[in-house]
Amino acid sequence: MRIRVERHVQFENCAIKTKTKQTNQFTGEISLENLPKGLEYLALSVNQLSGTICLTSLPLAMEYLYLQKNNLEGSLDLTRLHESMKRMYLSRNRFSGTIDLGNLPESMKVLSVRENALSGTVRMPAQMYRKFEANLGVCCFAGNHDLIVKRV
Question: Looking at the domain 18-151, which fold is it?
Answer without folding.
Answer: 3.80.10
